[in-house]
Amino acid sequence: MMKKKIKQDSNYLSVFEPTVTLKDKISVLNALNKKYISGTSPIIREFENSLENQFSSNKAVAVSNGSVALDLAFQLLDLNENDEVILPSFTIISCLAAVVRSKARPIFCDVDSNSWNMTLQNVKDVFTENTRAILMVHTYGLTAEAKAIQEFCKDNNLLLIEDAAEAHGQTVNDQLCGTFGDIATLSFYANKHMTTGEGGALLINDEMYYDKALKMRNLDFDNSRRFQHENFYWNYRMSGLQAALGISQISSIEKTIEKKIKQASIYNNILVESDNLQIPLISNQGSRNHYWVYGVVLKSKSRDELSSYLHNEGIQTRNFFWPLHMQNVLKDEFKPKNSLQVSESLGRQGLYIPMGDHLSKQDQITIARKLLTFVDG
Question: Exposed, middle or buried: residue 8 (CB in 10 Å: 0-12, 13-18, 19+)?
Fold first, then answer.
């Protein structure tokens, strides 16, 4: 059935709208006045310093987006086609693309049905003697079983890349996400807890990785031999204006998180009434949900029909990630022999609903009530 077309005006409740404050605007204007607009401006290092302080990292490398950060992280590892990288199937395709472009072999694990994140047991289920690295991803407001996976990597001499793109300010037993991996990656896309519009970063504690990452983001420039290059590296720089916005936004992370948690409690109090709906965990194994998004999983009725119904009611939704092991672009040789039931179920039956400062409490109540009308009607 064709969806009724709705004019997306002020009455249409979008999934997300970025928050840009007066302080953010002043920060960007100051950068403009100083002509700090390029990717080699001093403000880039200032932004990186802010990231290092926020994430307790030795070194941060700002780049043009989160996908680039993942690409660089895997290029730093020098993997080959015989090396296996374990990653969750339930995550964004940037993760898979970075593994494939590194020439390594992606090995997909399933995720936990309650937290929607990878656990140590998920990893162990697909671990082999060829495993060289693990890509640990924190998804939708909760976290992977970070400490256990980190210890497993140490015990088995594995490299750990931590994708904390959706986990700014998130902790596991008081340890910050972004500090578990040998290299961690961040995304500052518009819908993240802090944004630079586009943008990303690597958090690195190894000096050799750090020095190489600086060259890899900047065409292999070296001031001692300015226009002589040893490698065909790309331009992955972040602009100065993006960094200026990031410096301002990073100071508001805690406030942003508390707002998300407060909004989620409104949804929780209403949606908990339904037995036909799985709502997010409030916390899980030492980690409080930060509700990067507010996701729900339908237990019986059709997710796609719910999405269409809410659209016709003026409410935007987004489907959950489609499992990586089921992507059309994936070569057959990389597809697992067994199904990954949780990832597949989440991909078919999960979606998330609007969150953000553009919503009033009454908007949220309306959204939740309409959702209940569909699933319980």
Answer: exposed
